[in-house]
Write a structure and sequence with these properties.
The complex is a heterodimer of chains A (264) and B (263). Chain A has 264 residues and is an all-alpha fold. Chain A has one domain. Chain A has 11 helices and no strands. In chain A, helix 7 runs parallel beside helix 11. The longest helix of chain A has 35 residues. Chain B has one domain. In chain B, strands 1-2 form a two-stranded antiparallel ribbon. In chain B, 38% of the residues are buried. Classes of the chains: A mainly alpha (264), B mainly alpha (263). At the A-B interface, helix 2 and helix 8 of A face helix 2 and helix 9 of B. Chain A: It comes from Paenibacillus glacialis.
């Protein structure tokens, strides 16, 4: 029964997206432009050479995987929660016999499924034909890649949700979103891989959860991580999910109390 | 609408925004951090490679800042009115801009001036001045005037791009995705366009002349002894105001058509 409700929420979000399907081609065009720009930069920088064992072919795959991962991140959930908290529309969601974060997650998942089918897959196919793309050979890498995508989904979701709850107190969603986007820009490695970071910057990136939103899935896909490294990363990513989940739980509980006091 | 009335509108908008000074400041800090992150990524990149096609970190920082600064100035005047135009038309709120004894274009722009770009301006001017202090450009009075004019022309060009897409709202009603395409295309000039193929360079110079915003002015300032740098550098000063004038004409045509349709 519960699973059916979640599935229905997902389908509803999916069909909401189909209203904008005419924009899909333009989105694909935009994505390919960005990948093209990144490839041009790497061509200018690397030429026919390599740096730390990375050549232009590897960077093409890296850029494309990162573009695709960025399309399925859920950190923009911040605006959904923010809107509902400020308008008070959240009350109707709270009346539903379903946990609020789960409702939100499946709603976002509907968006993600839409993005994958209508944006990510076409972007990958067209870019593959235009620029080339390499595929993982080892089955374990494919399995680990899928798992790392799941971690990326969960971590981006909880980050966005956490920021939304924080902004409930400070009413600064916009500024917090800029800050979190700034951190993702640098530390997810989505443009500049963590391989090219100096020791100090690599250390900071390792302390933060953002590398799971770009670098880690791409590195696994490209088979640049061995078995033990993958297991260590998966464990670390799961710890982040747990930590962020607890933090949102705590903040949610406080926010709801405040909402009741204010009379909703 | 004269300049005095225009600046009076802007003064009122600034005053009303400053009612919420705290939220405004936090927003500005967030934006500055956002841009600092973009600079940081390029800096980290150039720790590995020293130059991109012969452009070192300070030169890239100059190029990048010129783009942000001109965008911030242009967008202060045009972003909110142009991005909001399709919704304003759909809601039927556009009529009030046509029923005043003022030019609808200037009145619409003035009433939606956005002070929020001050953060962009602060960080880009800061990095611009820093990069100028690092690169030896052999400053002359001509060059100083050139930089000043290049910023004005670039701002006009950035504004023109927004106005052109905004004016399409009159015909197509929904144009939001065209704005997101514009912002993606503008990423092309975040780096020296010499990294792209010849065809794309020609497009970015003559068809969608975004390279006139920052690339050619930078080339002129770094080395004006090369003839093509000099010529294109001068073209860059003309093309901004020209593009803005044409976009204004296009917008007014759209606005007149809207009137004719009876709203």
């Amino acid at each position: 029964m519960m699973m059916r409700a979640h599935y229905a929420i997902m389908c509803k979000a999916f069909s909401r997206n189909t209203a904008y399907r005419s924009e899909v081609w333009l989105r694909i065009f935009g994505n390919i432009s960005i990948v093209f720009i990144q490839i041009s930069i790497w061509k200018a920088l690397l030429g026919t050479g390599t740096l730390k064992g990375i050549d232009i072919g590897a960077m093409i795959t890296y850029s494309l995987i990162n573009m695709s991962v960025s399309m399925i991140l859920m950190s923009k959930v911040i605006y959904v929660v923010d809107d509902k908290l400020k308008t008070g529309n959240i009350t109707s969601d709270l009346l539903k016999p379903i946990s609020y974060p789960l409702l939100l997650f499946f709603d976002q998942l509907g968006n993600v499924v839409f993005q994958i089918i209508f944006t990510v897959v076409p972007t990958i196919i067209i870019s593959w034909l235009l620029f080339g793309l390499s595929f993982p050979r080892e089955p374990y890498a494919i399995a680990a890649f899928v798992a790392s995508l799941l971690l990326a989904l969960l971590i981006s979701f909880f980050l966005g949700y956490l920021i939304a709850l924080v902004s409930f107190w400070f009413l600064t969603t916009f500024a917090l979103d800029w800050m979190i986007t700034a951190l993702i820009t640098v530390f997810s490695g989505s443009f500049l891989p963590l391989w090219f970071f100096s020791a100090e910057w690599k250390f900071i990136a390792d302390m933060l959860p953002f590398q799971f939103l770009g670098f880690v899935p791409a590195a696994i896909y490209m088979e640049k991580m061995d078995g033990s490294e993958i297991i260590w990363m998966m464990g670390k990513g799961s710890m982040w999910v747990l930590l962020l989940w607890c933090a949102t739980k705590l903040l949610w509980w406080r926010a709801i109390k405040r909402l009741e006091i204010q009379g909703g | 609408m004269n300049i005095r009335l225009f600046s009076y509108f802007i003064k009122l908008i600034i005053k009303s925004r400053m009612e919420y000074r705290g939220a405004f400041m936090i927003g500005a800090v967030g934006q500055i951090l956002g841009y600092a992150a973009n600079y940081l990524v390029i800096w980290l990149l150039l720790q590995n490679f020293d130059t991109i096609n012969g452009w070192n970190w300070t030169e890239i920082a100059f190029l990048y800042s010129l783009n942000i600064l001109t965008y911030a100035i242009g967008a202060s005047f045009t972003y909110s009115p142009m991005v909001g135009l399709d919704q304003t038309i759909i809601n039927g709120d556009f009529d009030k801009y046509l029923t005043k004894p003022l030019s609808p274009f200037t009145y619409y722009l003035a009433s939606l001036f956005n002070i929020g770009y001050i953060a962009h301006i602060v960080i880009s001017v800061f990095v611009l001045l820093w990069s100028i202090s690092q690169v030896d450009m052999g400053w002359t009075a001509v060059k100083i005037i050139y930089l000043f004019l290049a910023v004005i022309s670039g701002s006009f060009l950035q504004a023109a791009a927004l106005v052109v897409i905004g004016s399409l709202s009159f015909t197509f009603l929904r144009v939001q995705y065209l704005f997101s395409i514009l912002f993606k295309i503008k990423e092309f000039i975040a780096y020296p366009i010499s990294i792209y193929g010849t065809l794309l360079q020609l497009i970015l110079t003559w068809i969608i002349p975004l390279a006139m915003i920052n690339y050619y002015p930078s080339l002129y300032l770094f080395d004006e002894s090369i003839l093509t740098n000099k010529l294109l550098g001068i073209v860059a000063l003309v093309i901004g105001p020209l593009a803005f004038y044409l976009s204004y004409k296009l917008w007014m045509r759209g606005a007149n058509k809207y009137q004719g349709a009876g709203g």
